[in-house]
Each structure stands twice: as structure tokens, then as C-alpha cells.
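Input/output pair, single chain:
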Amino acid sequence: MSWANFLQLLVSGLAMGAIYTLTAKGLFIAHLATNRLNFAQGDFLMIAALLTLALRGAGLPVVVVIPLVVALLGLGGWLLERGFIRPLDRLGFRGGGEYSWILTTAGAGLIVQNVAELAWGKSGQYSPPLFSGTNEPVRFLGVGVYPEQLAVIAVSFAVVAAFYYFLFRTHWGKSIYAVAFNPDAALLLGIDVRRMVILVFALASMLAAVSGVLAGPIVSVYPQMGLVFTVKGLAVAAVGGFSNPVAILVGGVLFGLAESFSNYFNSQFGDLLPLLGVLALLIVRPAGLVGARKATGR
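Output:
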């Protein structure tokens, strides 16, 4: 392998790893506060990518498109909690039991996927560059790399840093952890538990929006892509133990790099090998890379 190929694979792996990290962070925060997984996370990423493509095609500038897509997906997260999850919570076992959220979130994802197919068809598309006028490679250390990938890495890591600050340095973030530890005790402390649950689903959807906006220019966007990103996001979150945001970041970077290099050496099974590596890791360390503390007493 030449130095040029190595650097290009490194940049590509970091870019995709950053997107997987954002996807996993959305799964993580929903699981943290509710002990549930949102199987529609990848489909929200997909619809965000297609919305970005459509709005850019309509001539809207990036500074308008990004906040608009993030706001729309935040509203989608609110609708997911209010329309698909809360009604079943009220019904209890009459609504399918405590694991009914698996079908409801997966069903919401299928609805989003079918709407996307009706609106955009099934063919793959690419969004125009977000941060550069052209997606032509630029010279970096004597090697041609795509500026969009470098921008995706920078923006993704900035969002991850902001997410970390929100969780551990703000009142709302600490309230989410209080709800995760014991919702009844959090309620006695004056924390609106239901509002926190709505907040985490909105935040998870907004993280999916950022992932979709960033992924559009560097991967093919099509309605069925959501399941792929959900599975890979779950793999990354599992590597991080579902309760350690720093370990999730490390897991996302490692997964992206493993995928990039495995596709270089074997394109036929390149996407499969990193997932098998995650399975092997979880057999040896079921709690992930870091033996995470349990964030909830339930």
C-alpha cells in the first residue's frame, strides 16, 4: 500500500467514523434516558440527507438548509415520542408489553422510508458539496484528499464536543442523567421526566439530521440506506458500552477506519468484516471497550 492510498483511506475512514459516531450518539442518548433503542434513527438520517438534497436543489443556501433540516428532524423526534411511544406507554401490557417500542420505532422508520421512496424514488443520489464550491481533491502532504471529507471530520467532532458539554456541563444534561439513574427520584427532585424524554428523542433526531446532512455529499443517498446506518450505529454504540460517550467516539473512529481499510483489501466483504470484529469484541468484553457504569437503576 502506498503512502497516498494510506492517507486517503485514513481520511475516508475518519469521515465515515465521525458520521457513525453521531448516529451512535443519537442511539445512546435515547437509550440512556429511556432504556430503549430507536430503530428509526438511520431512517431519520436518510430523510435528512434527502431533504438536504431537495432544499439545495431548490437553491437555498447552506446556512438556511442545515438549521432548517435539523429543526424539521427535531420536530420528527417529538412526533415519534408523542405519536408512537407515549400511547403504548400509557397502555402498558395492553399495548404490546414493555418491548413494544421495538415495533413502533421500526414501524416509524418504515413509514419514513416509504414516504421517501414515493417522493424521491429508489435510485441513489449525491448531495452537492456543503462547505466547498467543488469536490475536487486538494493536495495535502503530497496526497489528494477531498475537502468535503475534511470538513465532515471537523464539523462532526465539533458536534460531538458540543454534545459532551451538553450532557456533563448543563442543567438539562444533568437532568437527563438523573432521569436515567432513577426517574421516580428525578420526579421528586422537580425534574419533568416526560419533558426530558421528549428532549432526548428530539436530540437523537437532530443528531440524525446532522449525520444525514454531512453524509449526503460523501455517500450515495437512497431510501433503503437507513437500516445500514442503524446497524452500524448500534455496533459503534455497543463498542462504547451504551453509557460512555467518549468510548462511543473511539468506537466510531475505529469502526470507520476498519471499514475503510477492509474495503480496500477486500471490497466484497469489506462492510462485513468490521461487524464481525464488533461481535468478536463483545464476546470477549460484553460491556464494550470500557467497562461502563450502569447509568440506570431499572
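The chain has one domain: 18-284. Residues 3-34 form the longest helix (32 residues).
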